[in-house]
């Protein structure tokens, strides 16, 4: 999704490319612009170029081509410590021989801030992450979660306008991770700082961010708000990468007025919403979310095409039922239904019919 930087952007990547070896591009053509105060997440599989982008923004790597702008000014020639950017990494990177308070004072000393002012800021930053009592401890005397809080406080202590975080919660257990996700987003919004956050965890990206840039193979595949990304993926990669998703392969038969019919490879005909397909005969992968599949025919529009399905497995999950079906020759078609008082509990071996509203079934590229 090409998006040009403009005068109002706080952070902008313009046609940025990066090669480490002078041959292969690991960042291919990055265009991205962020307003001040935004929480933007770069989400993508390992090796897709996320860390490289963050390192270029921080100034630890240089772009092979293109421009990176901060507040409208190209920062290509400004060294890292002059960019006024706070950073948090996965492995805390606290100085082990210093106390917590000394760790926090360090970025202030580098910036030549006087002792009294330093102590005030350190106290404030520690209070912000609820670690006010821990100033005299050394990192080894803290739990992983506490160390990560200190790393966060250290990134915020000099009041940067921009903070970069690279998988900062990756080393924490699930419960602590969810708690910290909440703390980080609250803190960022309260302080009004702009955040570029990197993760390969889609739930983290969806729950924390104003917008998410989905990376694959050195390119942004889609840049959108979480609900838009989940409900309106623009290509097969994004549909597969974000959330659980059923896919069926086939060929476009008819296409008109924002609707298409697809002849599945097994012979069945279905209704779909043409997203990046344009003409009959074209190969497509249709994508439908498990919670958008209807098993009650009365709830489908008139003339809707339905598919025969066989129930293979029923899993009771408390709040929802997760049922696996055989559909169009595939054994991995999943539907999710809410555990409402009148909800049917399907049984393995049962034959049913399924369908959907055509707008919920997206005909995407066949790649
Ligand atoms: N310092 C480096 N030297 C050479 N190649 C690198 C270096 N850092 C990353 N790469 C390569 O660049 C690609 C993108 O890596 P990276 O930006 O770390 O991806 P991500 O953070 O999405 O996992 C990978 O193929 C990786 O091997
Ligand atoms: Mg990385």
TrEMBL record:
Keywords: ATP-binding, Cell membrane, Membrane, Nucleotide-binding, Translocase, Transport
Signal peptide feature range: none
PROSITE patterns: ABC_TRANSPORTER_1, ABC_TRANSPORTER_2
Family matches, as PANTHER family: SPERMIDINE/PUTRESCINE IMPORT ATP-BINDING PROTEIN POTA, SPERMIDINE_PUTRESCINE IMPORT ATP-BINDING PROTEIN POTA
Subunit relationships: The complex is composed of two ATP-binding proteins (PotA), two transmembrane proteins (PotB and PotC) and a solute-binding protein (PotD).
Described function: Part of the ABC transporter complex PotABCD involved in spermidine/putrescine import. Responsible for energy coupling to the transport system.
Name of the gene encoding the protein in the UniProt record: potA
Lineage top rank: taxon: Bacteria
Stated family: Belongs to the ABC transporter superfamily. Spermidine/putrescine importer (TC 3.A.1.11.1) family.
GO CC terms in record: ATP-binding cassette (ABC) transporter complex
Name recorded for this polypeptide: Spermidine/putrescine import ATP-binding protein PotA
MF GO annotations: ABC-type polyamine transporter activity; ATP binding; ATP hydrolysis activity
Reaction it catalyzes: ATP + H2O + polyamine-[polyamine-binding protein]Side 1 = ADP + phosphate + polyamineSide 2 + [polyamine-binding protein]Side 1
Classification lineage: Bacteria, Pseudomonadati, Pseudomonadota, Alphaproteobacteria, Rhodobacterales
Annotated ranges, domain ABC transporter: 11-242
Keyword check for Translocase: yes
Annotated EC: 7.6.2.11
């Amino acid at each position: 999704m090409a998006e040009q930087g403009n005068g109002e952007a706080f952070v902008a990547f313009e046609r940025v490319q990066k090669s480490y070896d002078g041959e292969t591009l690991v960042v291919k053509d990055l265009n991205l612009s962020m307003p001040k105060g935004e929480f933007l997440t770069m989400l993508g599989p390992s090796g897709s170029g996320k860390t490289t982008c963050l390192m270029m923004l921080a100034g630890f790597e240089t772009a092979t081509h293109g421009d990176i702008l901060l507040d409208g000014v190209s920062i290509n020639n400004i060294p890292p410590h002059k960019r006024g950017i706070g950073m948090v990494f996965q492995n805390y990177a606290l100085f082990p021989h210093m106390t917590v308070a000394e760790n926090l004072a360090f970025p202030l000393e580098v910036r030549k801030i006087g002792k009294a002012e330093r102590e005030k800021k350190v106290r404030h930053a520690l209070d912000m992450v609820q670690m006010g009592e821990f100033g005299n401890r050394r990192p080894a005397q803290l739990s992983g979660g506490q160390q990560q809080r200190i790393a966060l406080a250290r990134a915020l202590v000099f009041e940067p306008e921009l903070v970069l975080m690279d998988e900062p919660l990756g080393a924490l257990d699930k419960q602590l991770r969810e708690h910290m996700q909440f703390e980080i987003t609250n803190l960022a919004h309260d302080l009004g700082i702009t955040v570029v956050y990197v993760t390969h965890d889609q739930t983290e990206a969806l729950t924390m961010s104003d917008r998410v840039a989905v990376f694959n193979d050195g390119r942004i595949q889609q840049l959108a708000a979480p609900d838009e990304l989940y409900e309106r993926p623009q290509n097969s990669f994004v549909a597969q990468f974000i959330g659980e998703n059923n896919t069926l392969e086939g060929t476009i038969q008819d296409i008109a007025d924002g609707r298409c019919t697809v002849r599945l490879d097994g012979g069945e005909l279905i209704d779909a919403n043409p997203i990046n397909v344009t003409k009959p005969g074209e190969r497509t992968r249709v994508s439908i979310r498990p919670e958008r599949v209807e098993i009650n025919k009365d709830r489908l529009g008139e003339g809707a095409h339905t598919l025969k399905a066989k129930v293979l497995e029923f899993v009771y999950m408390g709040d929802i039922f997760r049922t696996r079906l055989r559909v169009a020759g595939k054994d991995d078609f999943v539907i999710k239904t809410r555990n409402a008082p009148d909800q049917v509990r399907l049984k393995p071996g049962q034959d049913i019919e399924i369908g959907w509203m055509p707008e919920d079934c997206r005909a995407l590229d066949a790649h």
